[in-house]
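discrete fold record:
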Amino acid sequence: MALDAARQELEEFIPHVRNISDSSIRKMAGRDLTRFKEFKKQGIAIKFGRFSKKENDQIRKNIEEFIAITGIDSAEKLLFTSRYPEDLETINRLKAEHLFCEKLSEGIPRPWRLIYYRARKMFDPNNYKGRYTKEEKEKLKKYHALHGNDWKKISEMMSRSNLSVAMKYSEIKSSVNYGPWSKEEVQKLMRAVEEVIRKRVEAEDANSPSSLKKSHRDLLIDLEKLCQKLPWTEIEAKVGTRYWRQCKQKWNTILTNKMTKGQKLYRGTKGLQAKINLIKRLYELKVEDANEVNWEELCDTIGNVPRSYVQTKFYKLKVSCVPLWRKKTFSEIIDYLFKKKLPELEEML
């Protein structure tokens, strides 16, 4: 299929397709377009963002079935074949013969590339090795000096996942400040966020058939754009003295203070009422997974706050109130909060 035609067809399913590289478009035309059309016939929309429990379970099922069909020893060998050079040729042949791409994405309405990355994250044993030691941090600095941003190579040398080494290096690459934010740092952060949002808005304008004047666009940088997913590594580079997670947390704090006008909405009787409202609303949703929750719709349980604020308060609630919460499913956590914690909070109120 011609590149322009492929891009045009994909645009129906992926609104931001104009920002995707030509090589990625060619791959998506081969791997995704037919699948996307089939999902459309079934009335299923293509998804982005976090994977739900149902999708994660489907990935596990697809991997297990492929391993059973081919006799490949493990998911690690299947997804990280380069770690096993002696089996490389055999595994690649089996993947081609048994249509690995099609099997992995079966039943999941997402771009293949995102499904593949998710599967690698789920099945990489190097993803779950805990905190970095001082020695590991020194090794990471040394390997980065030698190999730059070749995270695949560095991850193999350190027996950590690509994502893990990249994120850890982001934290330790410079003299990151861990103390209170200075006025200058806050100004840099706000300028950086403004720049990336303006760039995004201008890109949308360039692809929009409407002829809104640029001077009117300030009105359209609304709450949704201020709260939506932002390129935090890019913002980190602009700020310079903080790593990306600090920038994200600080921005959410700034946004919350602006939206609430500095009021303490989660203290005293207001805090008790907010917890009660949040537990009740989550219980009423009857969902099986946190990824199925529309957190935007729950903001009014606390007040005029961003989605991230509600998610943070829920996290603190489950950690402080639900015993062995790590071993419980999302629905079990909500049931416990509703049946055990809610009556206590209502009595306190």
